[in-house]
Amino acid sequence: MHLCTTTVRVFAIVGLGSMIGVGHALVIKNPVGFRRAPAPQIDDQTIDPTTDQTVDPMPVVHTPEVAIADPGGPSNDEQNADAGSFPIDPLDIPGPPGTLTLREAYALYDEGAYFVDARHEDEFNESHIATALFLPAPRVRSKAGLDELSMIPPEVTIVIYCVGGDCDASENAKFAIERSGLGFTDVRIMGRGFEHWVDAGLPVEHADGSVTGDQP
Amino acid sequence: MSKKTGWAESILFQMPLRVGLGGVFCIAAWTKIGDIQSFAEAIKGFQVVDADSYEHLIVFGAFAMPWVEMIAGVLLVLGLWTRASAVTIGVLLVLFMGALLHVIFDDSISADCSCFGDLSVVCSSSVGWCQVIRDLVLLVPTVYLIWRGGGRVGLDALVSNRSSQPNPGSSGHYVSEGVDEDGLRG
Fold first, then answer.
1. Does the beta carbon of A5 lie under 8 angstroms from any beta carbon of chain B?
2. Which of A127, A172, B10, B31 fits a 20 to 30 Å CA distance from B83?
3. Three-point CA angle B115, B117, B123, nearest 5°
4. How far is residue A20's CA from residue B63's CA, in Å, rounded to a whole number?
């Protein structure tokens, strides 16, 4: 009898909570959801101009076009000379589709793009990309975060990074920045993580304020 | 158990544990309700279900779970439906621990707990053993309240006392139905 009553009451609590949750979802101003990473555009067929026949080359993946500066890695010629050999330069290792390589991210860094750190606060405090702002998604939605974000000109490029790989934080921060209503249109994600940036010897600011790596 | 011991247990153990546990869950729920998007992202980050295929399930969970926590927490604080609220919280704690262990044992997942929204209560925000231990600690009073009920101080006791008053129309017989639903004799 008691077990039965308790079970019914548990279901009542869960049911009531679910109903209020659905009601909450209906009245909330900004709908909750996730942005999926855009699928890469893959050319799997091209036309051979000499024969007008379609050929099936290796798929070509389009990544955002940026002017690539050389942050100290081997030149393109050196890379071409080693085209058939492995491993590829760490700066050119691709991240998830649609994200920037370290070389592309550094080129934007050199051009004055704003870098946003989407990792945990303790990780950011320990060290971060020099001049980067601490703006993970929840902070972007807070007043303090919005105030900080509003100081960035909306026309500039923002590059977000986290620990890399399967890290969702960059995607969430990008989504939050684009939905902030501050007019940012060029928000990109560095596909490789902070540790890879450190390993490549690129500029890093530490807790004591010192900057190591290639000075900007 | 004597009447005196029952009161002592209620005042020294059951009520403080009820209010403490309920309060913790109310705070946890409130921080999540304030930023549902972050909580949804945290659930997604746990990678328990595929976000592409079950986005709606994750979003539903992100809205429903904090409200279930809130209702169970408020009921615990009030001492109403104490056992049912404690069972609900116990089930939630077990689910949370399962999800935490899933992240801990899968090295490829880096997730935020978001257990208390932006607040870091005892543990840091990154998922680790600290959160599992914290949930285990919270499970102790939960199990105690499921076992012993809410005690003599609370709305359960009030409702029960009222329902066991002499029925004027039945020559001194007591209405005992519903008594001890939530551990009032425990």
1. yes
2. B31
3. 55
4. 8
Three-class SS state of A165: coil
Q: Closest Cα of chain B to A84: distance in Å?
A: 30
How many independent structural domains does chain A possess?
1
Question: Which chain A residues touch B142 with a CB distance below 8 Å?
Answer: none
> Is residue A144 domain-resident?
yes
Domain ranges for chain B, please list them. Answer: 3-152
**What letter does residue A92 receive in the DSSP assignment?**
G
A20 in a domain, yes or no? no
Note the residue count of chain B: 186
Q: Which residue has the tokens 């304030």?
A: B34
Euclidean distance between CA atoms B123 and B87, whole angstroms: 24
How many CB atoms sit inside 10 A of residue B142's CB? 24
d(C-alpha B38, C-alpha B44), whole Å: 10
CA distance A114 to chain B (A): 23
pLDDT tens for each residue of chain B, 186 residues long: 556 668 888 888 889 999 999 999 999 999 999 888 888 888 888 888 888 888 889 999 999 999 999 999 999 999 999 999 999 999 999 999 999 999 888 877 777 777 787 677 778 777 889 999 999 999 999 999 999 888 888 888 888 877 776 655 544 444 443 444 444 543
CB contact under 8 A, B38 and A141: yes
Q: Do B81 and A165 touch (CB under 8 A)?
A: no
CA distance B84 to chain A (A): 5
Collect contacts of B155-161 with beta carbons under 8 A, ≥24 apart: B155/B78, B155/B79, B155/B80, B156/B79, B156/B80, B156/B81, B156/B82, B156/B181, B156/B182, B156/B183, B156/B184, B157/B79, B157/B184, B159/B80, B160/B184
Whole-complex ipTM: 0.84
Mean pLDDT in residue range A126-136: 92
DSSP labels, A21-54: HHHHHHH-SS----PPPPPPPEE--EEETTTTEE
Residues sharing a CB contact under 8 Å with residue A129, sequence separation 6 or more, in sequence order = A109, A115, A117, A161, A194, A197, A202, A203, A204, A205
CATH number at residue A153: 3.40.250.10
Does some domain include residue A23? no
Q: Cβ of B70 and A5 within 8 Å?
A: no
